[in-house]
From TrEMBL:
Domain named N-acetyltransferase: residues: 1-138
Pfam families in UniProt: Acetyltransf_10 (PF13673)
Stated name of the protein: GNAT family N-acetyltransferase
CDD domains: NAT_SF (cd04301)
Gene3D superfamilies listed in its UniProt record: 3.40.630.30
InterPro entries in the cross-refs: Acyl_CoA_acyltransferase (IPR016181), GNAT_dom (IPR000182)
């Protein structure tokens, strides 16, 4: 049985996972966000190895998560869902009213499972189609 632990991590620890999981074809520095050091970052450790990450930013009581990434060899095993459940709980504790993200269009179904809905805002970036998805949170 694998042991999973989620904890807050330093921003730079997210970069390797983001790069390997999301943009391996781009230069490493492209996965760094200008506001990384303003965010809250969480790492999912699988048997003590950093395997997944997500970054959370807020403007008042509206939160955005960015760069939810799980290493390719451990995807489709439920670790992304565990990270998503964790940040939803975190946002509720913070009394957030809304959580949103720029979702890759091919990942919409994942976010639907957590009660997110599509908005009419879409865009294309770095070779991918995105849609803004959001979820209202009860206070």
């Amino acid at each position: 049985m694998s042991m999973v632990q989620i904890e807050q991590i330093f921003p730079s620890l997210t970069w390797r996972i983001r790069h390997e999981a999301m943009y391996p074809e781009l230069p490493f520095d492209r996965v760094k966000l200008p506001d990384d050091f303003d965010g809250i970052h969480f790492g999912l450790y699988l048997d003590h190895k950093l395997t997944g990450v997500v970054s959370l930013f807020h403007d008042g009581d509206v939160y955005q998560f960015r760069k939810l990434a799980i290493l390719p060899d451990t995807q489709k095993a439920g670790y992304g869902s565990q990270l998503m459940a964790y940040i939803l709980d975190f946002c509720k504790i913070q009394k957030a009213t809304k959580l949103w993200c720029n979702a890759r269009v091919n990942a919409k179904e994942f976010y639907f499972k957590f009660g997110f809905h599509e908005t009419d805002k879409t865009f294309f970036k770095d070779g991918y189609d995105f849609v803004v998805m959001e979820k209202e949170l009860s206070s």
